[in-house]
Amino acid sequence: MEKSCSLLVHFDKGTPALVNEIKEALEGNDVESKIDALKKAIMLLLNGETIPQLFITIIRYVLPSEDHTVQKLLLLYLEIIDKTDSRGKVLPEMILICQNLRNNLQHPNEYIRGVTLRFLCRLNEAEIVEPLIPSILQNLEHRHPFVRRNAVLAVMSVYRLPGGDQLLVDAPEIIEKFLSSEQDHSSKRNAFLMLFNCAQDRAVNYLFTHIDRINDWGEQLQMVVLELIRKVCRANKGEKGKYIKIIISLLNAPSTAVIYECAGTLVSLSSAPTAVRAAASTYCQLLLSQSDNNVKLIVLDRLNELKASHREILVDLVMDVLRALSSPNLDIKRKTLDIVLDLITHRNVDEVVLTLKKEVVKTQGGEHEKNGEYRQMLVQAIHTCAIKFPEVASTVVHLLMDFLGDTNVASAIDVAVFVREIIETNPKLRVSIITRLLDTFYQIRASRVCACALWIIGEYCLSLSEVESGIATIKQCLGDLPFFTASEEGEGQDAQKASQPVNSTTVSSRRPVVLADGTYATQSAVLETAMSPPTLVQGSLASIGNLRSLILSGDFFLGAVVACTLTKLVLRLEEVQPSKTEVNKTTTQVLLILVSMLQLGQSSVLPQPIDNDSHERIVLCIRLLCNTGDDVRKIWLQSCRESFVKMLADKQRRETEEIKAKAQISNAQPDDLIDFYHLKSRKGMSQLELEDEVQDDLKRATGEFTKDGDDANKLNRILQLTGFSDPVYAEAFVTVHHYDIVLDVTVINRTKETLQNLCLELATMGDLKLVERPQNYTLAPESSKQIKANIKVSSTETGVIFGNIVYETSNVHDRMVAVNTVIQDEREFLDHIIKSTNMKCLTPPSALEGECGFLAANLYAKSIFGEDALVNVSIEKQADGKLSGYIRIRSKTQGIALSLGDKITLKQKGAA
């Protein structure tokens, strides 16, 4: 049971304090015991207990206490007890409370007066408050500001009670006089807030009467002024011109909170370029002046919202936004780069890229532990700039190539991908990129980066010198052959194996000899050779971790890439090298390298032998080098590049489609009113108002005028809870206010039957508490119901809200079939179901690949009468090899579901 109280205390209801113990402590003279007893009583009341017998004890023994803590807890107790009976009438014993409250309002201590006035703000019973009104008004003239500011709030609370305007008829006039003479900022804020809520005309009159001193008002009062402006302008948009001048003047306020609110209010009221530019500049200043990371992220979100509707204005401020990269927080850097990349144009791309280059150079210092991740973000940003504006590629590609050997593998891979794309899209940079890549190739340490760099070398080394340099670079990084050799004693062998006799083999050799008469003959010789376990030969380049050490570590995929690259280079050498002798010599050297890699993969020196795919690729390269045809040459030297070009074109097309999809499509209604700017009277209008009128007219003409921005924000907070095809559709509108979360759930019965006992069952994880369980409802066919659920938040840590919707119905719209089959392969069983039911698999083939023992797929079909059927197959392979699981059938028509279920049950056991 939830009760209204300004105190939220955790209390374990499993160990409640006994009422008699509480009474004894309250009747005693020990102040500390009274404080503890009052706390226990309050916590019991908050947890739904009723303790009526304590009231008289508290009146007798607690009310006279002068202790401030006791008095504060007493007011909390009085706040949560029931003050009315079942008919809504005030209980007679409340008269005792009124006398005590009157005494407190006249107490010589200002703290007692202040907390009592604050307590009166939380009373909803006019009968209790009415006798206290003279004392409340008397406190408006108290010497201490703490009392005065709470007295104003008490006046506002009484005036807003049902019938309160009759109890305090002249309250607005009293508060207006008080506001004119008050000097305390908090008291003035409360007084202006009272006029704002209860007498808006008086608040507006006071604002324009003292408009010349508005910059001297305190932060709290200025915030209320901004709230008043938003409310007035929403009600009467024709008057926003004079209020915008006030907002612009408040942009120079010393309070950053006021400046932030001014910028937000300015954007919400006006779409004039001058106003939007002022707001954007204010956000940029806050972005640089504030040290709190959360504030920076919030400001970046506001700039991102401005970018969506006023991109052309944000383009001029892109360098100011980019200065936020000075923050050490990676989230701020990432969000800043995301905003800036959407604001790049031909005018500012050079400045942006120059700044990004400077940031990349800074990451080499190693001062921050996440420099590698930040460098990766910068590389991706520069990549985007270079793709959009190819003319800047030449200024950054050589700088980024220094990071191909970066220890951060992800950053190095991004650089390699960037270089690969730039060398294709910018043919003028090909020679310089290849030259630089060959010079720095030995620095690359990651296998994936080496593979990408080798592909670039194989595809874009076109001239004779480039091809020869490419082959020489790869040979140098591979080191001397062979990769392993046999020795007298294998390194790494233990003493037992070293003491055993080595294996021996007989090798026959045939060689020509010259006889005495000058003729030739063949002589056979038999040699005994001793063999010992083979050992790896570590070349001189192994210490820098390049091709040789990577291959010797067992990376035969990279070895296959090396083989393909050398093959491409040899094939191209045949086209550009006129000397066949040199071509044959190079081919022989490459073949020797490939054969050595195969021998290494098939030897016992490595813990894992070469995989089949890599073995087949290397063998294919050997065959091509031994016998090359024109068709094969075309595939290796042209088709691969053509596929890459096609991939880049598809990528560009997808990005273009995504941009178009994100663009808002707005259409003007044919009966929308359009005011002609040139026919309007401009008398008395400022330049800002004129711009605002022009922008509004343009938005109406183009259909971009949003009538209510709040509606769009509401739509963004709607969460879909169930599927569109479910019998019960549900969506929730989430409202978060301080430590309260309100879920307004709309439930729609999409069936033709009445649903009995429909209930929204919610559960929470983390520091969240469900206040009360939603009740059960009966939903008529195709009707809807609004269900509200309140959730308390006790901390800002991450929490989860989940649940389900249960109901009773006489009809079943889905059916589940248990898997019972002799088929033991998941994919084979799925294909059998598809063939048997003549359905189409909606799950993409890529999601069904692999061998994990589980398979889930969605099937769909439509009958000739237009009836839809959806089948979900979920199966698991058991330890004994059999398949288990369920097949769920969903359809709006019961007959379709039943017939499909019977068919699957009949045919799922085998191929028959």
UniProtKB/TrEMBL annotation:
Q: Name one Pfam family in it.
A: Coatomer_b_Cpla
Where in or outside the cell?
A: Cytoplasm; Golgi apparatus membrane; Cytoplasmic vesicle, COPI-coated vesicle membrane
Q: How does it sit in the membrane?
A: Peripheral membrane protein
Single GO cellular component annotation? COPI vesicle coat
Q: For this chain's UniProt record, which GO biological process terms are given? A: endoplasmic reticulum to Golgi vesicle-mediated transport; intra-Golgi vesicle-mediated transport; intracellular protein transport
The UniProt record lists the Coatomer beta subunit appendage platform domain at 816-904
Chief subcellular location: cytoplasm
Name listed for the protein in its UniProt record? Coatomer subunit beta
Q: Which organism is it from?
A: Trema orientale (Charcoal tree)
